[in-house]
Design a protein that fits this description.
The complex is a heterotrimer of chains A (about 210), B (about 325) and C (about 220). Chain B is α/β, with parallel strands linked by helices and about 325 residues long. Chain B contains twelve helices and ten strands. Chain B starts with a helix and ends with a helix. Chain C has a single domain (about 20-225), classed as MetI-like fold (Orthogonal Bundle). Classes of the chains: A mainly alpha (about 210), B alpha/beta (about 325), C mainly alpha (about 220).
Chain lengths: ~210, ~325, ~220
């Protein structure tokens, strides 16, 4: 471990970390924005959920590098390529969670809401989604953590991130760079995970701690 | 001040157009590329600024960093795009102007991208042919005395076992040897096809490794491969007691470091600055800098700044 | 879609189906790396998961592992070992096994730990020893989740073996890494398509396996729910 390398390259490391955070967090957030309506649809119309879940299973089985490559003709060797691919993976993680979260809302709760005169939309937004929040955030946690870690594979198609430290470290046979990359990716992923745990507690004060 | 500039350039390495988080798709260092019907890996064409690129091995990143620092010292605005890939990947980009300047090796440039059937071997012959045959958008500046050639390299044990001093000596043994090199060596004219054509060598197999890096060293020393493509300025040739075989039939042409420039992006300041660097760059200086960045893990930026200062170029 | 055009043109070229480095050869190599790592990981993770699920000791560790393992960047782990150890068997086997263990361990643990209290009491009441409880009751009931864990790990292995081509391993990733190095999209797309097909085949294999292995009683129960 060469600490002098770390101290001299602070700005490089910082920029790579920011880029990794960007490539990891954005797909998870877009995934959240898409998976909620998709999941609501699938939970409402039951015929929609088996095909949706099957599709999700198959897409999730595609190796990340293969998906990046499949997207090259459309999106080139670009940030967008990696973001779109990781968004797809995030959807695969989150759609089943949204469906499970909505289905976990107990029938008596729904009946109570109906009895209080809640319409369908109000029931969804005011009762079902809040109750499903812990499960949805559970999915979001997995999505963010996976995206941050997978973003480094994007380096193989030239999309820069902390993955650069792996490649340069290999070429110079320089473990320090590789350790720094590994540690920062794991720390970044776990930090995002902690933020989401905090968000869940703040959003669902009624839930058991 | 030098440290400052060094830092900036180092930060640029690989970050290459990391740019801000909001950056567009053009910000990837490997290739700012957009789809093209003929080859999806092909890049999009140029933008305004001077873009200095490099291949994906440390020596070329170092050379690019020297260029970048020297140009910045002359007040030129530079966008670094380092560690792009092999020549096959970056050459189409500089041809279209997505990169403005890249440190090249004249012989490999000629046989990989310009004229695969070339037989030019000397620095003068190679440069003459390059000047004649490069596309009109590209030009080479003055070559540096420094050379870094591909070489067929074996371990001392292998050399002793087969009494090898030159590539010709491999003829009786090639069929029991596995050859290692970077993936593109398999198809390059001065790669496996050249070894076959010029020396009549057909190896038992080919193992794709890396650009004369640690995988190549480890494959050689562990016996995974018996011979490999190693660049002659690679520090581990000396430290690991490897033997680079002579090349009597000049398969590997002269490999002087030379700036390859996209003409529309060039001007007199750029040309003068890069030629001044070439004038001072000797093989010994290059090897010393390789030892610094590869063996001693010093920074590209620090080593580049040191070279420029020592030669009165900064 | 042009990805499929490129991939299909390359995959259907007869020249790519013969000789060293041909498609059948690389598919076998890919399956070899993935299968061997999965086997080693399963031999470690399944007994460990059963032990933790049965005794409850170490459960906190497993629960935390459930999400954390995804944070490990596979490329970095592979490269680190390549730099530290050079190229050897260990260089790829260790990271692949390390990455395959968590999903198997977590799912096995959850399957065994989640066995209904009443069922366990019934087994005890029927006079089963601890060993019999584990092998005749808890493991069969946990089997669906164990299979999910194995499936997740297997798919992960297929993906990771692809990336391992970067540190000099054979397999389908070779086409991708070599194609990228020499700027040829044909083999890159072809290799990627084959990897996708392999991953989906693994998915189908596990769907079939779960029909074969999961006890009929459990399956019926699953359907009626």
């Amino acid at each position: 471990m060469s600490w002098s390398w770390v101290s001299v390259n602070g700005s490089l490391i910082w920029q790579l970390t920011r880029q990794t955070a960007y490539l990891g967090v954005v797909p998870a957030l877009i995934g959240l924005a898409i998976s909620v309506p998709l999941g609501v649809t699938a939970a409402r119309w039951r015929w929609f959920s088996p095909p949706a879940l099957a599709a999700v299973n198959v897409i999730y089985a595609i190796p990340s590098l293969a998906l990046f490559i499949a997207l090259i003709p459309a999106l080139g060797l670009s940030d967008t390529n990696v973001i779109v691919a990781l968004t797809l993976f995030s959807l695969c993680i989150m759609v089943p969670n949204v469906i499970a979260g909505l289905r976990s809302v107990a029938e008596p709760v729904r009946q109570a809401a109906t009895a209080m005169g809640y319409g369908q939309l109000r029931q969804l937004v005011g009762v079902e989604l809040p109750l499903a929040t812990p499960v949805i955030i559970g999915g979001l946690r997995v999505a963010v953590v996976s995206s941050i870690s997978l973003a480094s594979v994007g380096q193989l198609i030239g999309v820069s991130s902390l993955g650069y430290l792996f490649i340069d470290g290999l070429q110079r046979s320089f473990p320090t760079e590789i350790y720094v990359g590994l540690v920062l990716i794991i720390v970044l992923a776990l930090a995002c995970d902690l933020v989401l745990v905090g968000a869940r507690r703040a959003l669902t004060p009624w839930a058991a701690r | 001040m030098h440290t400052r500039k060094g830092l900036a350039a180092v930060a640029a390495i690989a970050v290459a157009a990391l740019a801000a988080c909001s950056s567009s798709s053009s910000s990837s260092p490997a290739a700012s590329s957009s789809p093209s019907s003929s080859n999806p890996l092909a890049p999009s064409s140029a933008k305004g600024s001077v873009v200095v690129g490099s291949a994906n091995f440390p020596e070329d990143e170092l050379l690019a960093t020297i260029y970048i620092q020297a140009l910045q010292a002359k007040g030129i605005k530079v966008t670094p795009k380092l560690s792009i890939g092999a020549r096959e990947v970056y050459y189409p980009q500089i041809e279209k102007g997505a990169i403005s300047i890249i440190p090249e090796y004249n012989g490999a440039l000629l046989t990989t991208s310009v004229n695969p059937s070339s037989t030019a071997a000397t620095t003068a012959a190679v440069n003459a042919e390059l000047k004649a045959k490069l596309p009109s958008t590209l030009e080479i500046l003055n070559p540096a005395p420094a050379q870094d050639k591909d070489s067929v390299t074996v371990t001392q044990a292998t050399a002793a076992k087969y009494h090898l001093t030159s590539i010709s000596g491999l003829a009786p043994y090639a069929k029991v040897m596995v050859f290692g090199g970077p993936p593109e060596f398999k198809t390059r004219a001065d790669g496996l096809p050249g070894l076959q054509k010029v020396y009549g060598l057909t190896f038992k197999g080919f193992d794709p490794l890396d650009e004369s890096g640690p995988l190549t060293l480890s494959a050689l020393t562990s016996g995974k491969v018996q011979a490999a493509d190693v660049f002659t300025t690679t520090p581990y040739i000396a430290t690991s007691h490897l033997v680079s075989l002579a090349d009597p039939k000049a398969l590997f042409a002269a490999q002087n470091v030379i700036p390859l420039v996209y003409k529309p992006a060039a001007n007199a300041t750029i040309t003068d600055t890069l030629n001044a660097i070439s004038a001072k760059l000797t093989t010994a200086a290059l090897l010393a800098m390789d030892v610094a960045v590869i063996s001693q893990h010093q920074d590209y930026g620090t080593v580049a700044a040191g070279f420029l200062k020592a030669n009165g170029l900064s | 879609m042009s990805f499929f055009t490129f991939a299909w043109d390359w995959v259907t070229q007869a020249a790519n189906w013969h000789g060293p480095g041909s498609i059948p050869h690389q598919v076998l190599a890919h399956l070899g790396y993935s299968g061997l790592s999965l086997l080693v990981a399963a031999l470690i993770a399944i007994p460990l998961g059963i032990a933790i699920g049965h005794t409850g000791r170490g459960a906190v560790f497993v629960v935390n592992l459930a999400n954390a393992w995804r944070a490990i960047p596979t490329l970095g782990l592979l490269i680190l070992l390549a730099v530290l150890l050079g190229f050897s068997f260990v260089t790829w086997l260790v990271p692949l096994v390390v990455l395959a263990i968590p999903p198997i361990l977590v799912n096995t643990y959850e399957g065994v730990a989640g066995v209904d209290r009443g069922v366990k009491d019934a087994a005890l009441g029927a006079g089963m020893t601890g060993w019999q409880q584990v092998t005749r009751v808890e493991v069969p009931i946990a089997m669906p989740l164990i299979l999910v864990g194995l499936r997740t790990a297997a798919i992960f292995m297929v993906a990771t073996a692809t990336i391992a081509a970067y540190i000099g391993l054979g397999g389908l990733g070779r086409y991708i890494v070599d194609g990228l190095a020499s700027d040829q999209y044909g083999p890159v797309a072809g290799g990627a398509l084959l990897v996708i097909i392999l991953a989906v085949a693994v998915l189908a294999l596990f769907a079939g396996l779960s029909r074969l292995i999961i006890p009929a009683g459990l399956r019926r129960q699953g359907r009626s729910e």
